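hi! just following up on the protien thing from before. the input was this:
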Amino acid sequence: MVKTIDYEFPRGDSFLLKKFRVTDTSGNVMELKDTDQLYFTVKTDSNSSIALFQKKINDGIELQDDGYYHITIEPKDTNGLDYGNYVYDIQVKRTVPKDYVKTLIDGTITLTNEVTWEVNE
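and the predicted 3d structure came back as:
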């Protein structure tokens, strides 16, 4: 079952999403291998084929010492986006020994007003 978590924060701010663990369909913690990948993808809506931005392991998704993954949204990721609602998901993809894809978390990101814009900094 996919867990739904919604977020709201000012456009252009740094933001750390809730930490999470990667689990299989039975809820067991999966240890990811070098051939595995995690994706955090943000789009205008779920029907769009265009990702507004995406994070991957070691490129915005980091495994912490406590065994949880953290995703950091940087100011550059949202500075150019309009205020409003966007959709996201976090998906694990494994290709060895067989293809396995699981959406772990999905939800909405609401970008709210900001007063200090990047051009003011």
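Residues 14 and 74 are 5 Å apart (CA to CA).
The beta strands are 3-4, 7-10, 15-16, 37-43, 53-57, 60-63, 69-73, 84-94, 100-112.
cheers
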